Amino acid sequence: MAAINAQEMVDIYLQAEADLLQGGKDVQLGGRRVTMAELPQIRAGRLEWERRASAVARGGRSGHSLASFGE
């Protein structure tokens, strides 16, 4: 099985979230059945993978810059 990258994981979480919100009582996520009650965990997982995908897009940089004052 090929490794899944961060953006693919974001897409998987988005699809699971959309499926639940469109009336599905449960969906498969990574070989595991999840229910509407687990929507907060799905959203938290999506946010984590979005952060990872963003870090990859920035080349691993934090996105914060450092300022030097007075020198």
Automatic annotation (TrEMBL):
Give the protein name, as stated in the record: Primosomal replication protein PriB/PriC domain protein
Q: Which domain of life is it from?
A: Bacteria
